[in-house]
Amino acid sequence: MTDPRPRLSDRDRKRLFRLHNRTCHICGQPIDGVRQAWDIEHVIPRNLLGRHADTDDNMKPAHKSCHREKSKVDAGNLAEANRREDRHIGVHQPKQPVPPGKPLPAGQPARRATEPLTKQLPPRRALYVPEPRR
Ligand SMILES: [Zn+2]
């Protein structure tokens, strides 16, 4: 997932800024475009969706400071997701084979299926029970 990140033109920044009501999607406060630095930011990180993240719904304005804080959280979540995926698909190969466990001690098995049941079974019941008529 290493799609090149396209640089937004000034025209697209302006369009997205207006489309999303000049509001920071992270803190919900209006953005003063003159006094406050702002970015167009991916709501769902581009690292997760690749080029599919580059939609108007997923690209919203945010204060630079809000964006910075969100990116830290996103990076941590992404790293955790990658570690989980690695464990899930077994990426890491152990240098030594996993040692086999100890064999079970010889003796009687704890439970034998061939012994007759001593406990009384509950009475059988029909699977289909017609509803009483009203
Ligand atoms: Zn903000």
UniProtKB/TrEMBL annotation:
Annotated InterPro entries: HNH, HNH_nuc
Domain HNH nuclease residues, every copy: 13-68
Domain of life of the native organism: Bacteria
Compositionally biased spans, kind Basic residues: 61-70
Region: Disordered, residue numbers: 51-134
MF (Gene Ontology): endonuclease activity; nucleic acid binding; zinc ion binding
Gene3D superfamilies reported for this sequence: 1.10.30.50
Compositionally skewed regions (Basic and acidic residues) per UniProt: 51-60
Pfam families associated with the record: HNH
Listed name of the protein: HNH nuclease domain-containing protein
Organism per entry: Methylobacterium tarhaniae
